[in-house]
């Protein structure tokens, strides 16, 4: 049989829905197992990321998920399984597909043991569903502190600081699906979109080439739920602890569904055929536990069809929802471009930007030909010159973003007037960055030497609008980084360089 993953909101999102009641029962059983058991809740979270030896204190210990001296798996087993999650990489989607599949099997086995439904499958949280007025709300089964019988709710965690509101509601503009208009799974090397699925990398526990779906909604939703408070990041906001939150798996089931939606929405939306992708990284294998605790090794080529016997699941809905709001995401324009043209650097700022306080800005200078191209003479319709579909595309690159803490969202604008209220300036809005995994990617002893992450935004519409107004005649423009909460200096958020690339039509 093929298991069918259903929407968390199909029957109200609370414990009246057996799907969620039984999820809680299954999760509770896994939570009772020790960290030295590779089928336990905590071991599964550690496969994503764990740090219990850090000199600056372990979040696992701080939040009570690890007690020094408790039995651990052998170091061979730790090395085989732990700290595998693939981010900033073209392996992001296939690695997480195998990961969610694994815990789904473990949870289902416990549900069946307890007398629950044999066809249970992982629910998904479709926060982008505009037909559902509650779609943006954290489903009640996760925000209730108790089960219907009064016992503690295993799906509840205290460390969901989100944007400070209770219950958690995701901002609608954070879950738009511009990523699904990507024409390619793998993007170009530098400058332009990293594609739906991310840039070509090796094994990439915290890589640099974040794909469009990974960037949004994935990263931003992580931060919108986890957030940050004085004690540290919420569970969902940091990859070292994210898998401990039961909502993690419904978020990832939805990202996994969106990959399938993208594949099914056009004959040209194909997965990579490069053997380097299909066969997975050569330097380390992907591995998750089977239900009996034996090792299941996999590569992206095993993850192409969810209904194949090794995975054996599908979704009840492949509709992408009509959440692609053209107003809020400037990158939703029709990407009719073949993306065969190499993007060229046409502007950059001069020095590293520290993002602190309420807003940090930096000025970018355009090169002479681009300045001439984007200068408007009075009465000239420059937007016609930049008209779709055969038009140049502009990409803003925030290169090597580093941070000492995760859990922040930074909104990016161009040419915000000094001191002005930015809310509602959607004409100047470039996109948002969710700082998820940036802390790990910034550590100098990490796999990439602390290079941080790079985010790319399609800003064609913003650039066209500014050009039309004559705002680019001076040959430079400001980029404004606006953290949603005032950033303190200890977050140490920096952007190595901000650049503008042009991809010719
Ligand atoms: Cu994630």
TrEMBL record:
It comes from the Bacteria. It comes from Rhizobium oryziradicis. Residues 87-104, 245-256 form the Tyrosinase copper-binding domain. The keyword Metal-binding applies. Keywords: Copper, Metal-binding. Pfam families: DUF7868 (PF25271), Tyrosinase (PF00264). GO terms for molecular function: metal ion binding; oxidoreductase activity. Gene3D superfamilies: Di-copper center containing domain from catechol oxidase (1.10.1280.10). This is Tyrosinase copper-binding domain-containing protein. PROSITE patterns: TYROSINASE_1 (PS00497), TYROSINASE_2 (PS00498). The keyword Metal-binding applies.
């Amino acid at each position: 049989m093929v298991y069918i993953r259903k929407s968390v909101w199909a029957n109200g999102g609370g414990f009246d829905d057996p799907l969620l009641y039984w999820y809680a029962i299954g999760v509770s059983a896994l939570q009772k197992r020790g960290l030295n058991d590779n089928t336990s809740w905590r071991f599964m979270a550690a496969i994503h990321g764990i740090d219990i030896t850090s000199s600056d204190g372990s979040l696992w210990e701080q939040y009570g998920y690890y007690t020094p001296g408790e039995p651990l798996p052998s170091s061979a087993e730790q090395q085989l399984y732990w700290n595998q999650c693939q981010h900033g990489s073209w392996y992001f989607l296939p690695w997480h597909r195998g990961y969610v599949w694994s815990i789904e099997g473990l949870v289902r086995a416990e549900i069946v043991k307890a007398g629950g439904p044999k066809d249970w499958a992982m629910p998904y949280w479709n926060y982008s569903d505009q037909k559902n007025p509650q779609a943006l709300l954290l489903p009640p089964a996760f925000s209730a502190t108790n089960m219907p019988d009064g016992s503690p709710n295993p799906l509840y965690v205290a460390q969901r600081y989100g944007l400070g509101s209770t219950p958690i509601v995701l901002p609608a503009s954070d879950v738009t699906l511009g990523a699904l208009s990507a024409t390619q799974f793998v993007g170009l090397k530098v400058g332009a979109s990293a594609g739906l699925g991310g840039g070509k990398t090796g094994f990439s526990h915290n890589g640099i080439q974040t794909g469009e779906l990974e960037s949004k909604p994935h990263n931003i939703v992580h931060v919108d739920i986890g957030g940050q408070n004085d004690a540290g990041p919420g569970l969902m906001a940091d990859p070292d602890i994210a898998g401990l939150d039961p909502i993690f798996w419904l978020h990832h089931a939805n990202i996994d569904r969106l990959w399938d939606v993208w594949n099914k929405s056009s004959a040209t939306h194909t997965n990579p055929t490069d053997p380097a992708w299909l066969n997975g990284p050569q330097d380390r294998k992907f591995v998750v536990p089977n239900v009996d605790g034996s090792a299941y090794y996999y590569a992206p080529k095993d993850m192409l069809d969810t209904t194949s016997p090794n995975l054996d699941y599908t979704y009840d809905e492949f509709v992408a929802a009509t959440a692609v709001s053209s107003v809020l995401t400037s990158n939703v324009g029709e990407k009719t471009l073949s993306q065969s043209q190499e993007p060229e650097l046409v502007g950059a700022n001069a020095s590293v930007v520290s993002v602190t306080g309420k807003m940090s800005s930096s000025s970018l200078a355009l090169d002479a030909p681009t300045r001439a191209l984007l200068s408007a003479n009075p009465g000239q319709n420059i937007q016609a010159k930049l008209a779709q579909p055969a038009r140049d595309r502009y990409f803003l690159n925030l290169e090597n973003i580093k941070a000492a803490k995760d859990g922040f969202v930074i909104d990016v604008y161009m040419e915000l007037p000094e001191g002005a209220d930015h809310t509602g300036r959607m004409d100047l809005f470039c996109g948002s960055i969710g700082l998820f995994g940036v802390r790990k990617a910034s550590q100098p002893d990490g796999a990439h030497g602390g290079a941080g992450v790079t985010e790319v935004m399609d800003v064609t519409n913003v650039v066209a609008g500014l050009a039309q107004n004559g705002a680019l005649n001076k040959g430079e423009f400001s980029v404004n980084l606006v953290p949603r909460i005032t950033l303190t200096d200890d977050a140490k958020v920096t952007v190595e360089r901000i650049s503008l690339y042009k991809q010719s039509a």
